[in-house]
Write a sequence for this structure.
């Protein structure tokens, strides 16, 4: 059958449509479902109350990450240390009960495979190119880095997927973000995605699925692609993806849940066919000049509030939109900043290197490269490095990165979401600043009153050394 | 789910733009295994300001929120919808909503009504003193001052809301079609079908 040229997103969608109703709503088959402790208890409870079962338990993987403390999990006697916070312990207990009751594979907090869902999925080969992947967490867009159609869902949808292995959805519009040229030396995937969100705004991708296109993304490591896709949701897009290629296949081959033998060969053949066709059109197209991207930081309380590290805090009246002027003023009040202040003059008391955006081995290497042979500044009171998973932690330790962090005066923690979201003991004190490699600088996100500046891992490391926001290129070549 | 036909009453003249779900319900309220009681944590940070709109005596308990662009952006937490429900909110009117939030709201019977900014500006004025009526059947928002705005809504969502349909039940009724898809996938793309059964 001759068909019109299609985008990567449309190809994955078409391959998963169970049926389309007259009103345009489709039943979409879901290949992979990740479950964590915070957004799943009410979904399992609903199944229990209605007497429903999990339709395809082998397509769901459960792992706790959000509210686990990142301090030691096993005591000297080898016994598991219980979570002190009663409510967090209850949520963890619920997941530990629900997973086996419904036949779902569960990764325990002390398992080497435990980690942040969005780190665990790709690195275990559970997340695959061309797959539809969902999780009750908006940063599920992350898995688009391996060429999957991945998006966050609410708890009612978690229940729907558990019961039916499908979702009721309308096809999204398509959006292309094409980056032309090469990134400057010292500019990372995190800088690029922060810059992109600054350009399109936090609602720029609403209703759309983004495909990131151009040489910059082709040349990026899988870890970097995961970082970019992770923050698609901060640009309003429920999903973002990069076409799978040889790098993707090399990354996934041999991982625990990746296909093997003949299955692998057939899978690669299909994955290779997923590229957007010549002549396919996008509903929206944004072109970014790579050379315009500098190491980028945020000044406000929305991920779109970005500025290059060489820039200054903007004046609210510099925005055309009156509602944005008001929002900017509120942001500056909350952040304790004044217009015209140089970003590099802003002192930070806390450093967080971690989160589903930036806790993979490449991120830790980038931070370690800056910190090697250096010490954190005295005004930095709290600085933690939280690997994304047990596997990342082990690899980092094999490479000696943990020693570099510890010698520089940073803490080396157990895997989890940590200070990204103020749900576990890792929080930034009210009124203090944090240079954070996470994804959201919302009011109170890292703890009530906490002031977040989003940065790349290398930039967080640079801020740790100088005690203020710093252009990392001044510290390393 | 209870059928929804009309939402009528006072509205919170909120107006804020880019309201993220961390603002609607901060993360520390997410440590619950139930859907109830989250209204106490709704808009917690904003409510520290004594002049906040949610504690204003004349609108307290209102079933409607009038808000700015991009309402519900950020985290996918359905707790945001549960928190609104728990504080008695049954509809939000805004120029736009995040995709995930509007889905979560719908699944909890909360109307997300999209109207242009000019209409929002007018409703913000009305909300200061008077009630607003949202009629889902006719897709209109009206005020006691003869204002009448029409809004668009997805026909499937409208149908489910009016009838109070359970989505999981609806999809389970299509079990044969799902089984047929699974059989096709097992044959054409068997690598997807194994999942965690591949574990060593």
């Amino acid at each position: 059958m001759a068909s019109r040229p299609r985008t990567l997103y449309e190809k994955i969608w078409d391959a998963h449509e169970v049926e389309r109703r007259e009103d345009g709503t489709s039943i979409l088959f879901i290949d992979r479902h990740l479950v964590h402790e915070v957004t799943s208890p009410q979904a399992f409870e609903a199944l229990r109350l209605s007497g429903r079962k999990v339709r395809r338990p082998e397509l769901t993987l459960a792992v706790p990450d959000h509210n686990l403390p990142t301090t030691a999990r096993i005591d000297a006697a080898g016994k598991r240390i219980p979570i002190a916070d009663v409510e967090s312990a209850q949520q963890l207990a619920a997941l530990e009960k629900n997973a086996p009751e419904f036949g779902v594979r569960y990764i325990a907090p002390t398992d080497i495979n435990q980690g942040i869902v969005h780190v665990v999925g790709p690195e275990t080969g559970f997340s695959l190119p061309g797959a539809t992947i969902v999780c009750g967490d908006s940063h599920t867009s992350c898995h688009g880095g391996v060429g999957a159609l991945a998006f966050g869902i609410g708890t009612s949808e978690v229940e729907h997927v558990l019961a039916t292995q499908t979702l009721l959805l309308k096809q999204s519009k398509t959006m292309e973000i094409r980056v032309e040229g090469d990134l400057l030396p010292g500019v990372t995937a995190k800088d690029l995605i922060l810059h992109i969100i600054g350009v399109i705004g936090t609602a720029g991708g609403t209703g759309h699925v983004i495909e990131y296109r151009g040489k910059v993304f082709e040349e990026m490591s899988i870890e970097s692609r995961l970082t970019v896709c992770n923050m698609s949701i901060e640009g309003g897009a429920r999903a973002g993806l990069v076409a799978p290629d040889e790098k993707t296949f090399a990354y996934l081959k041999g991982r625990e849940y990746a296909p093997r033998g003949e299955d692998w060969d057939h899978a690669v053949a299909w994955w290779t066919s997923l590229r957007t066709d010549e002549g396919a059109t996008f509903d929206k197209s944004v072109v970014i000049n790579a050379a315009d991207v500098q190491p980028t930081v945020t000044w406000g309380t929305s991920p779109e509030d970005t500025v290059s590290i060489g820039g200054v805090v903007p004046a609210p009246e510099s925005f055309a939109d009156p509602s944005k002027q008001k929002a900017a003023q509120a942001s500056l009040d909350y952040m304790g900043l004044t217009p015209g202040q140089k970003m590099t003059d802003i002192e930070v008391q806390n450093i967080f290197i971690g989160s589903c955006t930036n806790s993979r081995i490449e991120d830790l290497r980038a931070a370690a490269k800056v910190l090697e042979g250096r010490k954190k500044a005295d005004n930095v009171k709290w600085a933690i490095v939280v690997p994304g998973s047990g596997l990342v932690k082990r690899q980092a330790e094999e490479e000696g990165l943990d020693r570099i962090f510890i010698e520089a005066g940073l803490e080396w923690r157990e895997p989890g979401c940590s200070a990204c979201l103020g749900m576990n003991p890792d929080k930034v004190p009210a009124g203090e600043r944090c240079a954070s490699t996470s994804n959201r600088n919302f009011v109170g996100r890292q703890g009530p009153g906490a002031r977040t500046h989003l940065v790349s891992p290398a930039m967080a490391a640079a801020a740790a050394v100088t005690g203020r926001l710093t252009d990392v290129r001044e510290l390393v070549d | 789910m209870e059928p929804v036909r009309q939402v009528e009453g006072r509205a919170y003249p909120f107006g804020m733009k880019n309201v993220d779900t961390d603002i609607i319900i901060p993360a520390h309220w997410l440590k619950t295994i139930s859907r109830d009681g989250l209204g106490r944590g709704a808009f917690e940070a904003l409510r520290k300001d004594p002049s906040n709109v949610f504690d204003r005596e004349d609108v307290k308990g209102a079933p409607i929120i009038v808000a700015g662009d991009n309402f519900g952006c950020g985290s996918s937490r359905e707790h945001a919808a549960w928190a609104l429900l728990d504080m008695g909110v049954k509809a939000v009117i805004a120029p736009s909503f995040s995709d995930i939030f509007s889905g979560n709201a719908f699944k909890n019977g909360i109307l997300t009504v999209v109207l242009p900014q000019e209409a929002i500006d007018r409703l913000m004025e009305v909300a200061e003193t008077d009630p607003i009526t949202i009629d889902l059947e006719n897709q209109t928002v009206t005020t006691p001052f003869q204002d009448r705005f029409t809004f668009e809504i997805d026909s499937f969502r409208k149908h489910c809301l009016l009838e109070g349909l359970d989505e999981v039940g609806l999809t389970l009724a299509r079990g044969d079609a799902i089984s047929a898809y699974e059989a096709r996938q097992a044959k054409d793309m068997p690598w997807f079908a194994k999942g965690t059964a591949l574990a060593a």
